[in-house]
Amino acid sequence: MTEARDWTVDPGNPLPLYYQVYASLLQRIQGGEFPPGSFLPAERQLTEDYGVSRITIIKALNELSREHHIKRQQGRGTVVTHPAERPATERGSIAFICHVLDHPYLFHVLMGIARTAAENHRNLQVISSYDTDDVEARHVKEAIALNVEGIIVFPHHRYQNQALYEELQRARFPLVMVDRYYPQIDTDRVVFNDETAAYQLVSRLIAKGRRRIAVISYFEVEATSVNHRLSGYRRALQEAGMPYDEDLVWLDVYQSFQRPEELLSGVSARERLRRRLTQFEPDALLTLNDDVLERVTYDLLILSR
């Protein structure tokens, strides 16, 4: 028999205690420790094994029962069901957590997620993290507490929630990251081939005779999407036998994210751009996303007057 200490939950774990118990019991069921037709330990025994309250155990068992993995039998205990006894899953929910929801690119991402969720008979909860790691983590935990079947997240670029997502991985909670991801965590993800895209763009500019190609990003330089684009930029230069000149990598021109209607206040950033153009004389500019392109285009129009 497995010792109780092997199944003790971690109070410091960001996942709710009941979910840790639920995930552990489900793993033990699916791993064959509790085969179909067998009985789970009594609630009192589970309370001792996991070191949690009876209320926590009941909540975990209720979740397993809701998903038809177990059946509560009055006076007998909790029996593990046979797969054939488990009906088709009821319409569940998934959560999409994103740092902003009013961006055109993210709107298209959201529409694709919503269409796929509807086609697969799933409700979709759309939640904004308001561009902060703390709010992102709080919404992830709240979504789990609401029994969503999985979470899709467009993570904040500072990557401060690694411990939380590592716990979700260990608990085998369905998690998908969009556009960017945590490099240290092997999560499912849907991303562009950013490195290849940047490589092809820069290669095309080189083929057109450009030799001083400046690259411009803004404050999200930690994001994997931006890093991969920088990698593609560098690879194209190297394969063409051109030096990688750090003076042409401008990651500090735009130090804050601003919407088009706010660009008139960006005088200092525009001045930084003007000085770089004057000092280093690039013959092409590569912006690493559409927000930077919009800002650079506007500032170049102002500077050309």
- Total number of beta strands: 10
Spell out the helices and strands N to C: HHHEEEHEHEHEEHEHEHEH
For the terminal residues, how far apart are their CA atoms?
A: 80 Å
Number of separate structural domains:
3
Biggest sheet character: 5 strands, parallel
Helices, strands, pairings?
Blueprint: H1 17-30, H2 43-50, H3 54-66, E1 70-73, E2 77-80, E3 93-98, H4 104-119, E4 123-128, H5 133-145, E5 150-154, H6 162-170, E6 175-178, E7 188-190, H7 194-207, E8 213-216, H8 224-239, E9 249-250, H9 267-280, E10 284-287, H10 290-303
Parallel strand pairs: 3-4, 3-5, 5-6, 6-7, 8-9, 8-10
Antiparallel strand pairs: 1-2
In short:
The chain is of the alpha/beta class. Helices cover 43% and strands 14% of the residues. The protein is built from ten helices and ten strands.
Which key terms come to mind for this protein?
3 domains, Rossmann fold, 305 residues, Arc Repressor Mutant, subunit A, 10 helices, 14% strand, three-stranded parallel beta sheet, five-stranded parallel beta sheet, elongated
Structural features, described:
Helices cover about 45% and strands about 15% of the residues. The relative contact order is 0.08. A 5-stranded parallel sheet has the order 4-3-5-6-7, sandwiched between helices. It has 3 domains: about 5-85, Winged helix-like DNA-binding domain superfamily/Winged helix DNA-binding domain (Arc Repressor Mutant, subunit A, Orthogonal Bundle), CATH 1.10.10; about 95-190, Rossmann fold; about 195-305, Response regulator (Rossmann fold, 3-Layer(aba) Sandwich), CATH 3.40.50. Residues about 1-5 and about 260-265 have low confidence and may be disordered. Strand 3, helix 4 and strand 4 form a beta-alpha-beta unit. The chain is built from 10 helices and 10 strands.
